[in-house]
Amino acid sequence: MAVGNARQGVPRPHPQSRGKIMNRRNTLAAISASLLLLSLTMPAGDAAAQGAKSLVGSWAAVSAVTTDASGKKTDTFGPNPRGLLVFTSDDRYTLTIMRASLPRFASNNRNKGSAEENQAVVMGSIAHFGKYKVEDKAIVFNVESSTYANWDGAPQRRPFSVSGDQLKYSVPVASVGGTADLVWKRIK
After folding, report:
1. Greatest alpha-carbon span in the chain
2. Helices marked H in the chain
3. 151 CB contacts (<8 Å, ≥6 apart)?
4. In whole angstroms, what is the distance from residue 16 CA to residue 25 CA?
5. Is the full-model pTM beyond 0.85?
6. Which residues of the chain have pLDDT under 50?
């Protein structure tokens, strides 16, 4: 039964009811705090999923710049590399990048290329494929096979960013030595 408040004409809760109201408030506050803490721990997985979603599609090579130990920068595949990088929604990828000016083989047979022709092709291109995942703001390429066999079976971690239709990632230990920074543009 409520006890009246003579001054304001508003009924006040019985003193025993106040304890129930406080318990409900405390329970509601505890549930709210728990949900808030839970939501703060979930974005890491969501961010990784969003990062992976932002990669899905086809990308054309824009640039690949290698920096050696002295700080000298070189266009790894020339000033206008040709390349295709494809990320699928089922976590597969394929990457091919090469110089725009690879030599034609005089013999018209790739098994009969000269030492110079073979060297130019090896130094002017790389390809690999496998599975990928996004982890801690990095693409992890799980290389199944590569034209640079040293990467076969080895995860390759690439810190990356996507801004609009541009993908940038870094190669901490490039296959040609030093570090490399690659830029790709989404193909529409």
Report:
1. 109
2. 15-41, 43-55, 115-123
3. 128, 143, 175
4. 15
5. no
6. 33-47
